[in-house]
């Protein structure tokens, strides 16, 4: 008996400025999935429209009641699994996962709670501190709260980083070196989110660590050293090549083992699944966690595919492993 192939929708796009990167990531996954095992389809989710991309790039609207598509011959297309590769909202912050859970649609990556939690930098670091994972000293502010510049500088020193609490892509982040620049920096961050973090500056090497669960085991794909040509790893550095990325990072074995151990511990203690990329600053051999991304960039230029290549896992196997886990979910 010939097993029928499973249908997999590669779901890309999103509601934030990161949708451009997501479309590139989606294309790589679409191209890489094994056609002997799966029928692969493209689904794009944007603010204004959710659609399935058919032959000759014809758009078919997604029925949101059950995430199905009605084709020209009135045939209904349902997906056995959705490969979620949306960066930012709604695919990286739990909104899409909660909807899929509600309608009984299987999907790749982590669950609703892990997505929502890790998209919130403050809450992630608070949870991980309970597991002995260090982070920078920080102050949290909500929009409309009184900002006492002197108190902040006294507590954190200078320079500081001002960041939106929930935002991908390093949008709205500033490095503040002078007291007089702090208020303006908070205004930039508040444009992206109603909650912001002001963090003490950690003077060390930034590393980006890919962690996945592959064939039942949590593995560190690689540790990439980020050498920014700009002041820090900002949007331009991330997506327009204004940084050098060195894999593996130039660190000694003892530090490497410590980074691997802490990265795995963070992943496992949050109950993660699927792709993840955590950012750390290494200072005096200690990794301080900045954030965890649960749907990191996966375009050919992105860090995770580069790490997989060096680790020796093909993109086809990496993506196939995700689909198999999704299909086996209860």
From TrEMBL:
Protein's pathway: Cell wall biogenesis; peptidoglycan biosynthesis
Superkingdom assignment: Bacteria
Compartments in which it is found: Cytoplasm
Protein's UniProt keywords contain Magnesium: yes
Chief location category: cytoplasm
Function: Cell wall formation.
Name assigned to this protein: D-alanine--D-alanine ligase
Annotated source species: Chryseobacterium oranimense
Gene expressing this chain: ddl
């Amino acid at each position: 008996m010939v097993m029928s192939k499973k249908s997999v929708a590669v779901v890309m796009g999103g509601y934030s400025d990161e949708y451009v990167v997501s479309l590139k990531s989606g294309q790589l996954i679409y191209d890489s999935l094994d056609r002997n095992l799966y029928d692969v389809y493209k689904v794009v989710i944007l603010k204004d429209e959710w659609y399935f991309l058919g032959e000759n790039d014809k758009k078919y609207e997604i029925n949101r009641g059950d995430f199905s598509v009605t084709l020209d011959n009135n045939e209904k297309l349902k997906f056995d699994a959705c490969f979620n590769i949306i960066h930012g909202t709604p695919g990286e912050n739990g909104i899409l996962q909660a909807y899929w859970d509600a309608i009984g649609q299987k999907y790749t990556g982590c669950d609703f709670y892990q997505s929502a939690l890790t998209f919130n930098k403050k809450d992630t670091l608070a949870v991980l501190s309970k597991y002995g994972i260090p982070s920078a000293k920080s102050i949290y502010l909500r929009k409309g709260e009184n900002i006492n510049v002197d108190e902040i500088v006294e507590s954190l020193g200078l320079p500081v980083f001002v960041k939106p609490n929930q935002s991908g892509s390093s949008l709205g982040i500033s490095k503040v070196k002078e007291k007089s620049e702090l208020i303006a920096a908070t205004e930039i961050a508040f444009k992206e989110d109603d909650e912001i973090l002001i963090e003490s500056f950690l003077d060390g090497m930034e590393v980006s660590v890919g962690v996945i669960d592959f064939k039942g085991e949590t593995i560190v794909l690689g540790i990439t050293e980020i050498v920014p040509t700009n002041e820090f790893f900002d949007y331009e550095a991330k997506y327009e090549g204004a940084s050098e990325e060195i894999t593996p990072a130039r660190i000694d074995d003892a530090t490497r083992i410590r980074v691997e151990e802490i990265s795995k511990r963070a992943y496992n203690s949050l109950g993660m699944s699927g792709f993840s990329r955590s950012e750390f600053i290494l200072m005096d051999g200690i990794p301080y966690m900045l954030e965890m991304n649960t749907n990191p960039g996966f375009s050919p230029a992105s860090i995770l595919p580069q790490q997989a290549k060096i680790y020796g896992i093909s993109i086809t196997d990496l993506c196939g492993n995700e689909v198999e886990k999704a299909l086996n979910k209860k």
